[in-house]
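Hi F.,

I've been meaning to write this up properly since the lab meeting, where we talked about keeping a consistent format for the predictions we share between groups. The idea is simple: the sequence comes first, exactly as it goes in, then the structure tokens exactly as they come out, then a line or two of notes. No screenshots and no reformatting. I'm using this chain as the first example so we have something concrete to point to.
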Amino acid sequence: MASHTISGGSITTELRVNDRIRVPEVRLVGPGGEQVGIVRIEDALRLAAEADLDLVEVAPTARPPVCRLMDYGKFKYETAQKERESRRNQTHTIIKEMKLRPKIDQHDYDTKKGHVVRFLKAGDKVKITIMFRGREQHRPELGYRLLQRLAGDVEDLGFIESNARQDGRNMTMVLGPHKKKSEAQAEVKAEKVKSMGEKAAEKEADEAADKAHREAAKKVATPKKPRRRSENLDPDMEA
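Output, unedited:
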């Protein structure tokens, strides 16, 4: 039993093929998309058999239904390939969360900001949460100013997607990345490739320098002194 998935949802509709098409006549479309016209189902099946193709009902709700001559096996294969490619190219935006206190010190702020920068560079959204405690709840402006400060510090990488709002004891804001997830992933991959290439070039240069140093050391090496003839040797031994 053949089925066809409608992209964007889980609804599936069956495509009737060949003898499963039970209507007296159909509007026939040729294998190249040419309009053949309204023909009896018997004639449509005969044309499909003569062309060594399948008769596929592509628009069952039309009056009469629209059928097309095609290689149904090839059609199913190509459709499956497109769906797999589509799923492979899908990217899911992840919402990260970063929590801060309204009276955060500079060191902790820099650390938290570094995480936000990393998330935005990766193409992820970031939910910033300011947590108020005790009397801090009566100073919401502290949280608001902190959120605006953070948004300004990372404006090159992200934008305010959801403005600051009070949520019970907390205040939240959502930052969205300027670049899509797929673009961010491509850039990260390109940076890794570039880094690997630079490391390989640096290693090759170091090896070449070591080799040149060894060759230079050989050239300036002190030559061996010739062996002196012993004065105690018998002259007859040298003849």
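Notes:
The beta strands are 4-5, 12-13, 25-29, 35-40, 54-59, 66-70, 95-100, 125-131, 158-167, 170-177.
Residues 4 and 76 are 9 Å apart (CA to CA).

If this format works for you, I'll send the rest the same way.

G.
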